[in-house]
Design a protein that fits this description.
The complex is a heterodimer. By secondary structure, chain A is mostly helical. Chain A folds into two domains: 59 residues, no CATH class; 209 residues, MetI-like (MetI-like fold, Orthogonal Bundle), CATH 1.10.3720.10. Chain A has 15 helices and no strands. In chain A, helix 5 runs parallel beside helix 8. Chain A is globular, with a radius of gyration of 23 Å. Chain B contains 15 helices and two strands. Chain B has a domain of 202 residues: MetI-like (MetI-like fold). In chain B, helix 4 crosses helix 13, helix 6 runs parallel beside helix 12 and helix 9 packs across helix 11. Classes of the chains: A mainly alpha, B mainly alpha. The interface between A and B is large, with 120 and 121 residues. Chain A: It is a multi-pass membrane protein. Chain A: This is Sorbitol/mannitol transport system permease protein.
């Protein structure tokens, strides 16, 4: 799959290099660069502000000669950010593990040794993703409240597992489909059990797909805010909930806000850069490869 | 003779059935979990929506009422939220689509630093929405020390005077839409770029030989080819953007007044500030119905785009 993408890109390159396309080519390249910089500008500005003292950060236009400092990052790590980051790591990490544990066998039953109803089941799984999360807010809150699970990180783990499972099944389905059937058949002739086939054949072969799926589920769980806000309080609050205190802050706080916003974003920004090719596949629910 | 064939056939069917049942096994945990996590909450939402339930009046609950739906349709907040949601979603999707298309066309060429530009373009989509909302509210829009003010001062220095605007209070809806466009354009750009790269370069080369202009190639070859991808952008964009919450919660709190209150935020306010679970659930059901209408279209589209993904296999092998 990646080879075909590479071929396509190379084909596009050949086209771009042809005469007649290049006369204004530099202008188009320049435009692409300008737009790219425009999109990254708010982030770059935040990075700049985060390395200053509050008094310098609140100067407009900024004084580019103001001294740089890492104070804000030290303050962020010394504050409530640390437990919030750990909570996010737990919620996103464990839910991703559970999602993979459920999605790989499920995708095996839709893509490798398909059940007869595979198409219908896949469509149903897709349809659950189309139900807006907001409509589940009240019942989920009420149920978790009754179960005494409010402000409990495991409630978020369970919720995020359900939230990401449809995407993960669709992604794993398209990855597992590409495993050569002969390998599976050989294993079946050998009389290997389902568990053995999954762990010793499917898992190693599907590792790149599992990694990509896992990264996307991790990103979506890490960035979630609405349910984290309403299902947690002081104990289980995640990074996105930690940021709430900055919404109405008064006085000199924007440098620390910048550092906090960047610290909580960096894990998934890096994960996203790593998984950029798979990002679109996951979010289009497998429709685009 | 025929009895033996019948017997063999019945046997084959039984074997196929039991094999199919066996194949269901690895799928069951995921299906059960999904039913519990997605179908049951929506069932509960529907039940609550027909129940009179405000937790301020815990003894006054009654099932089997349409009061909540009447309340939604007579609630100024909800009515404003419906209009705002439409404006927010439609404007954002159209702007993202246009920008995403331009970016995809620009990035579908080879040039110095293409990978870097691509990485810069997708970054807004990865920043935690809560964090980017704070960044836009305080670091960009703030009228005292925001980036827009600084840029205005710099432009002033070189003789370009722009009027002073306080984005979040003068143009609240626009300031939300700008942040949403900044966040979602990368997503549409990636889908459209994938679409462009599925284009057969030989066809375009043939058009070159025939002397077709760039515009003609775009209008009559590239755009028709991109059509399913554009439709996908619209459907997924609408579905995801219907859930917009973080930006409204952070940047404007739905205000001033109800100027930027969308349906998720109105439902949140009704449930957790007004404590009216009944009305909040009724509004939720209405959002689900709207989503189902859009999704009916989306399901078909995704299935056909991914047709090789879910093409029916030889049922039993």
């Amino acid at each position: 799959m990646s080879t075909t993408a590479a071929t396509r890109e190379r084909a596009a390159d050949t086209r771009a290099r042809q005469p007649g396309h290049s006369r204004w080519g530099w202008l188009l390249s320049l435009l692409a660069w300008v737009l790219g910089i425009l999109f990254i500008l708010p982030v770059a500005w935040t990075v700049y502000v985060s390395f200053h003292q509050e008094v310098d950060a609140a100067v407009s236009p900024p004084d580019f000669l103001a001294p740089l400092t890492t104070d804000q990052y030290e303050k962020v790590f010394g504050s409530r950010a640390r437990p919030a980051l750990i909570n996010s790591l737990m919620a996103a990490g464990f839910s991703t593990l559970f999602v993979i544990a459920l999605a790989v066998p499920a995708a095996y039953a839709t893509g490798v040794k398909p059940i007869r109803q595979a198409r219908g089941v896949l469509q149903w799984i897709l349809s659950t993703k189309f139900l807006p999360l907001i409509a589940a807010l009240v019942p989920v809150y009420v149920v978790f409240q009754r179960l005494g699970l409010l402000d409990n990180i495991w409630a978020l783990v369970v919720f995020y597992t359900g939230m990401n499972l449809p995407i993960a099944i669709w992604m794993m389905h398209s990855f597992l489909k590409e495993i050569p059937k002969d390998i599976m058949s050989a294993a079946e002739v050998d009389g290997a059990s389902l568990w053995r086939i999954l762990t010793s054949i499917v898992l190693p072969l599907a590792m790149p797909g599992i990694a990509a799926t896992g990264l996307i589920c991790f990103i979506l769980a890490w960035n979630e805010f609405m349910f984290a806000l309403n299902l947690t309080a002081t104990v289980a609050g995640t990074s996105s909930v930690y940021l709430v205190s900055f919404i109405t802050s008064e006085g000199l706080f924007i440098a620390q806000l910048s550092a906090a916003a960047l610290v909580v974003s960096i894990p998934v920004v890096i994960a996203g850069w790593v998984a950029q090719d798979k990002l679109v596949q996951g979010l289009s629910l497998g429709a685009v490869k | 003779m025929s009895a033996t064939t019948e017997h063999a056939e019945a046997n084959a069917i039984r074997v196929a059935k039991s094999r199919n049942a066996k194949r269901w096994r690895p799928l069951l945990p995921a299906v059960i979990f999904l039913v519990v996590m997605t179908q049951i909450p929506f069932l509960v939402t529907i039940i609550i929506s027909f129940t009179s339930w405000n937790i301020m009046y815990p003894n006054d609950t009654a099932f089997g009422t349409l009061r909540n739906y009447e309340a939604v349709l007579n609630d100024r907040l909800m009515i404003a939220a419906m209009g705002n949601t439409v404006v927010m979603v439609v404007a954002t999707v159209l702007a993202c689509l246009l920008l995403g298309l331009v970016l995809a066309l620009l990035l579908n060429r080879r040039f110095f630093g293409r990978g870097v530009v691509r990485t810069m373009l997708i970054t807004p989509f990865l920043i935690m929405p809560m964090a980017s909302s704070l960044i836009w509210k305080h670091l960009i829009y703030n009228p005292q020390y925001g980036m827009l003010r600084s840029i205005r001062v710099w432009l002033d220095d070189i003789g370009i005077s722009l009027p002073f605007v306080n984005m979040t209070s003068d143009y609240p809806m626009l300031s939300i839409i700008v942040v949403l466009v900044w966040t979602w354009t990368p997503f549409m750009f990636l889908i459209l770029l994938a679409g462009l790269q599925s284009q057969d370069p030989e066809v375009l080369e043939a058009a070159d030989v025939d002397g077709a202009s760039n515009w003609a190639k775009l209008r009559y070859m590239t755009l028709p080819l991109l059509r399913p991808y554009i439709e996908l952008c619209i459907v997924l964009g609408v579905i995801y953007l219907l859930n917009t919450y973080d930006q409204v919660f952070t940047i404007t709190q739905g205000g001033p007044g109800t100027a930027t209150t969308n349906l998720p935020y109105a439902i949140y306010l009704t449930a957790f500030r007004g404590y009216d679970y009944g009305e909040a659930s009724a509004a939720g059901v209405l959002v689900v119905i709207a989503s189902i209408i859009i999704a009916g279209f989306g399901l078909k589209l995704i299935s056909s785009l991914a047709d090789d993904t879910i093409a029916p296999k030889e049922a039993a092998r």
